[in-house]
Specification:
About 35% of the residues lie in helices and about 45% in strands. By secondary structure, the chain is α+β, with helices and mostly antiparallel strands. The chain has one domain (about 1-105): ATP Synthase, domain 1, CATH 2.60.15. Strands 1, 2, 3, 4, 5, 6, 7 and 8 form an eight-stranded mixed beta sheet that branches. The radius of gyration is 22 Å and the shape is elongated. The termini are far apart.
């Protein structure tokens, strides 16, 4: 099988592998040669694979994974950090990815609050203008 992990800026991994383990919203799953084609959204997690009796890892900041009929596995992600030491990836990188995702959620909520406040102000002005017989 051929594994490619791609970010917007680089091809992080492009190599032949024997097996892959990943995680989506439904949980952890494996992919072996001959797997049926499918598409899934990956969680913030660590993908692991075996190639020539060596296990490797890559921390992903979510992403989309496709398994093609030609024994290809493509993962598109915002950020990927490959490594050989699972403990380092797990502690350092996943914690950073989770913190970044939490920050983005907070920023999104604040943006939505500002938009709702602006809409309320516009509706209030339109209502006041309509009551006075004019629109502004």
């Amino acid at each position: 099988m051929r594994l490619r992990i791609i970010t917007p800026l680089a091809v992080v991994i492009d190599e032949d592998i024997d097996a892959l383990r990943a995680e989506d919203a439904s949980g952890s799953f494996g992919v072996l040669p001959g797997h049926a084609p499918f598409l899934t959204a990956l969680a913030i997690s660590i993908v692991s694979w075996r190639a020539a009796d060596r296990e490797r890892f890559c921390a992903l900041r979510g992403g989309v994974m496709t398994v093609g009929g030609a024994s290809t596995i493509d993962i598109a992600t915002r950020e990927a950090v490959p490594g050989d030491d699972l403990a380092t990836l797990d502690k350092r990188v996943l914690a950073r990815f989770q913190a970044d995702a939490d920050e983005e959620r907070i920023e999104h909520v604040e943006t939505m609050r500002l938009q709702i406040d602006a809409i309320r102000r516009m509706v209030s002005r339109l209502t006041l203008g309509a009551n006075a017989g004019e629109f502004r």
